[in-house]
């Protein structure tokens, strides 16, 4: 084991030295950063293989079965802010004697050679480095992981079934990763499939590219360690962004049948069209579009930090819409009376924690400028449940006004400071106020 430490060290290695290991460790960034390995005259550069030990940061240079040189943490980088990217453990220069002349490879040259040697016609596992890498698996079913910095992944016809997991480890480690589709490929030559948080891209010859965790976005932080930001097509010289791909997925999910359309972190516009569709907004301020002939749709928005709206088509007026309770006790159904089409706001009135922001639709908008708020919807729903018969009317987590009208009614207020209306002719009513909140 050889360990030079601070300052500019030189390590000597030649045929017959056996299996040596270098651990070059600087204690501070100003202590010299030009360390060198000098290979003796017995080492043939063409016979040396440069490999990475799995997904570790170790470099292994193999001369033969009896001779190899391992450099521990050769590829380990640290992000130091104003001092940039620092490589505290690596060897910067590798000197070989070739036909009597000195040939010097830099650390960057060695990283490029490692990536080249890892790409075969078989099934490869290729890890990038803390720099801008180009990863090309070629034929075979390959796994590619660029890591930090702005990486480029190459894919095309005949590439097999490849998987990308970018695995950026730091916020400072680059934010513009790109897939390049080679040859004559254009955006029209690919088929997109959303598989949970993964993106599958299929080609006509059966080749496929899976981008793992492409849509695994955080609600609070603008960071996704595995997102690919750009897609370039050599056949048409077109550049698409990750948002372009998301918009395409949403557009292609809308059919004349029963669709499930799931949005992304960005503020999406979701419209199911004909059929009984399920629309899920995700993070961001989403817009749900609904109108005559759109069937029995369900909108579910689980983001409680954004402003989400329902927009009715211009041919729907407020007086044509009835607000009623849906299948679930916390659902709100907006039903167009004439056509029978309806949009159910799933769990619109559900509050898992009293006082916490709700995963609800904040506004229902009409083309004539009318706006219904969540309080408006709750009030209209409760009024609509009052009949001249025997009613069961349940309130919500808010301060509600419950009026059974005529008939023998049961009024359940629930959480919140509720008001119960009772008068002559109201019948024999029962009030049950189950306020389980301490507040």
Please characterize this protein's 3D structure.
The chain is mainly beta. It has 4 domains: 10-113, no CATH class; 120-248, no CATH class; 255-380, no CATH class; 387-432, no CATH class. It has 3 helices and 37 strands. The longest helix has 12 residues, at 107-118. It starts with 9 loop residues before the first strand and ends in a 7-residue tail after the last strand.
Strand arrangement across the biggest beta sheet: 11-13-15-19-18-17
Number of helices: 3
Largest sheet: 6 strands, mixed
Q: Estimate what percentage of residues fall within beta strands.
A: 25-35%
User: Number of folding domains?
Assistant: 4
Rg, nearest Å: 32 Å
Which outline best applies?
A: elongated
| Average pLDDT for all residues | 90
- Enumerate the spans where pLDDT stays under 50 for 5 or more consecutive residues: none
Given helix and strand content, the structural type is mainly beta
Q: Please give the alpha-carbon distance between the first and last residues.
A: 66 Å
Give the helix level as a range of percent: under 10%
How many E-type strands? 37
């Amino acid at each position: 084991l050889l360990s030079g430490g601070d300052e500019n060290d030189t390590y000597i290695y030649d045929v017959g030295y056996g299996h040596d290991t270098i651990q070059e460790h600087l204690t501070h960034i100003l202590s010299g950063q030009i360390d060198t390995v000098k290979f003796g005259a017995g080492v043939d550069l063409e016979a040396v293989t440069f490999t990475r030990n799995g997904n570790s940061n170790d470099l292994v240079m193999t001369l033969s079965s009896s001779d190899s040189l391992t450099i521990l943490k050769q590829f380990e980088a640290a992000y130091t802010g104003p001092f940039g990217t620092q490589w505290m453990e690596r060897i910067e220069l590798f000197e070989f004697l070739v036909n009597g002349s000195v040939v010097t490879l830099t650390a960057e040259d060695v990283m490029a050679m490692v990536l080249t040697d890892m790409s075969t016609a078989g099934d490869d596992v290729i890890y990038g480095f803390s720099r801008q890498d180009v990863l090309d698996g070629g034929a075979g079913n390959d796994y590619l992981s660029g890591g930090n910095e702005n990486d480029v992944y190459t894919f095309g016809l005949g590439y097999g079934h490849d998987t990308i997991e970018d695995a950026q480890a730091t916020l400072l480690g680059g934010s513009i990763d790109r897939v390049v589709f080679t040859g004559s490929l254009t955006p029209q030559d690919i088929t997109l499939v959303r598989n949970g948080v993964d993106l599958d891209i299929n080609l006509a010859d059966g080749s496929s590219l899976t981008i793992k965790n492409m849509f695994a976005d955080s609600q609070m932080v603008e960071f996704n360690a595995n997102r690919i930001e750009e897609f370039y097509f050599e056949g048409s010289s077109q550049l698409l962004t990750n948002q372009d791909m998301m918009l395409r997925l949403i557009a292609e999910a809308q059919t004349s049948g029963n669709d499930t359309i799931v949005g992304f972190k960005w503020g999406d516009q979701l419209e199911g069209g004909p059929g009984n569709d399920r629309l899920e907004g995700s993070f961001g301020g989403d817009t749900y579009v609904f109108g005559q002939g759109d069937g029995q749709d369900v909108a579910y928005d689980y983001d409680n930090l954004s402003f989400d709206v329902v927009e009715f088509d211009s041919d729907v007026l407020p007086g044509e819409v009835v607000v009623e309770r849906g299948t679930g006790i916390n659902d709100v159904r907006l039903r167009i009376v004439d056509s029978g089409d309806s949009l159910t706001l799933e769990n619109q009135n559900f509050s898992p924690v009293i006082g916490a922001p709700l995963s609800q639709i904040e506004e229902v908008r009409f083309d004539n400028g009318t706006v219904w708020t969540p309080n408006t919807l709750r009030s209209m729903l409760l009024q609509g449940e009052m009949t001249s018969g025997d009613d069961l009317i349940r309130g919500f987590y808010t301060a509600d006004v419950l009026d059974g009208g005529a008939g023998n009614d049961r009024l359940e207020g629930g959480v919140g400071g509720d008001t119960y209306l009772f008068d002559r002719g109201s019948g024999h009513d029962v009030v049950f106020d189950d306020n389980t909140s301490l507040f």
